[in-house]
Amino acid sequence: MAAGGxxxxxxxxxxxxxxxxxxxxxxxxxxxxxxxxRPFFQPYHLIIVQDGDPSRKIHVPExxxxxxxxxxxxxxxxxxxxxxxSFKDSACRCFGYMVSxxxxxxxxxxxxFVAKDPSGKEINAxxxxxxxxxxxxxxxFFNTLYDPYREGADFVRGYPFSMREGAPTAVSHGLWxxxxxxxxxTQLVKPLERNTRYVDAVLTIPKGTLFPMCxxxxxxxxxxxxxxxxxxxxxxxQPIGRYDDMWAGWCIKVICDHMGWGVKTGLPYIWHSxxxxxxxxxxxxxxxxxxxxxxxxxxxxAVIPKDCATVQQCYVELSKQVRAKLGKVDPYFTKLxxxxxxxxxxxxELNPPSAK
Amino acid sequence: MAAGGxxxxxxxxxxxxxxxxxxxxxxxxxxxxxxxxRPFFQPYHLIIVQDGDPSRKIHVPExxxxxxxxxxxxxxxxxxxxxxxSFKDSACRCFGYMVSxxxxxxxxxxxxFVAKDPSGKEINAxxxxxxxxxxxxxxxFFNTLYDPYREGADFVRGYPFSMREGAPTAVSHGLWxxxxxxxxxTQLVKPLERNTRYVDAVLTIPKGTLFPMCxxxxxxxxxxxxxxxxxxxxxxxQPIGRYDDMWAGWCIKVICDHMGWGVKTGLPYIWHSxxxxxxxxxxxxxxxxxxxxxxxxxxxxAVIPKDCATVQQCYVELSKQVRAKLGKVDPYFTKLxxxxxxxxxxxxELNPPSAK
Lengths: 356, 356
Description:
2 copies of one chain form a homodimer.
Chain A: H1 5-8, E1 21-27, H2 34-41, E2 45-50, E3 65-69, H3 71-78, H4 94-99, E4 104-108, E5 112-113, H5 125-134, E6 169-178, H6 184-189, E7 202-204, E8 217-221, H7 222-225, H8 244-259, E9 262-272, H9 278-301, H10 311-326, H11 331-350
Parallel strand pairs in A: 1-2, 1-4, 2-3, 6-9
Antiparallel strand pairs in A: 4-8, 5-9, 6-8, 7-9
Helix pairs in contact in A: 8-10, 10-11
Organism (chains A, B): Spirodela intermedia
Catalytic activity (chains A, B): UDP-beta-L-arabinofuranose = UDP-beta-L-arabinopyranose
Function (chains A, B): Probable UDP-L-arabinose mutase involved in the biosynthesis of cell wall non-cellulosic polysaccharides.
């Protein structure tokens, strides 16, 4: 019986996965922020999803390997199914997940910069995400010394040995120094609050526990959970915005719990530079703030039937429950349930099973 | 609607609770370790539970306010019910919880010293525990920026507003720098591993999630959860040792979940100086290592009936389930179920409801 985390370590010290990971960036402007990320991102392929006016030309710094999709491209590629991809909201980023052919995705906002650790060293966020994804998770029992697979750590006394192999990690949720990811009311009440605390930990969110997943600094195993990483209907023509990542987070957590996969949160940090306008955010969020009071109990009690063996099956099942139970809350959720099905159809079209 | 953690802050900057907290220390030797804790512990009353030979004289440094109980005292006070208090195992500490008349308990091992934070400042562990206990917990939804009530932190976007008042905190589980709390197999495999990582976080263990509770550096609200903080039958005459705190941790977590109370883990750290002998530990633990594979599923699926409204009722109910389901695993658990009932009887005798 292997007792030590050291004995289990499977992660190379500098995992690159150059040919297995795409970076997805939603944007409406020139991508000058990439200059700061050059040492870390340049080896990777970028998928840029241009939101808003497709005639606008987005500048990408020299030397990056990228493909760019604007609204016209999305409409051309998906045809009528393009209706499931949001417009004028960073939710459009999920189109990038769909067209990628790689095993892993890292997605980042264009107002996120390289953060420094307490020693002053620049943090390679991508490298930490890859470590998180390549290491198992521990969703079935809590380890008080945090990630037991990390060097210098292990499972503590009382942790069942049969659970020490852990579970595959599907999602790695990174955090933010400087501007915290607050909702509009909290932004309004605490306009000057900054996150200055570097918490040196990665932990698995336990099975059965929901969390607020932020899309600003997020990585996932596309082959495992990609089909559930749908960011919903937000922005233009919709009664809600800024809940795209939250919606995806609740869906993927319920499905990861069903499939026996882990979701991690904690390291790595990025430097979030610019708080969005709280007055604009309030307008986008107010329905979400109201509806989430119904959505959380819905997802907390959602059960995926045992015979759902693929993420696609789980997701279509979830869409049925959304229609049946949330349709009463607002007609928007019936439209969203339709879009969830359209998303899966589009996903399967672009990612036929035979291609694997 | 109060949106900010700042608006909710209820914790004075130096909470003392001098007249509301007892420090419980199980020991078999002179308490020289208290010298280092003098600046932090001297204002408090100590309850020393002397394990082993009662004729041995334990030296307590000058100036501390304490009461000391040895085995003869326990036998005299509890009479035949003293059978529920372990002998030759630090599980005997729970006798101190029973004889205390205070609202809060802090318990610490006598090989635990004052740790330093990354800035080199000595950590007042007790002060942090009191902060943890006086602040609400968040067991029903995960906050990615950890304790939302801490200065400089709050609830992140997507956290339901209706849940932001939190839940009463029943338990504060602190961690250890230097010697980590490993089981004997891990100690044997990694004899030189030391915990050097200071994780600057306190978090609530979500509802429905079990954790390995270590009794080395632990505080709790005795008025809330005291009657469930029973450390079981361990050591002399028992087929198991070093699972006293684990047993208590599984029981209190199931009951806190039922009652809607929170359990926190993380800060504060103490400096754990001496690893116990792994060969001796292996002998004490081997049954526990084997049995915990059955115990964890048992506690994960344990449900307390809705009509159990007091901790005493919950605990007696749990003892019935232990008898019915774990009695088959080993006759030891039938004996333990009896002891659980005896413990509650003794607790009620020493803490009659009218005294509150």
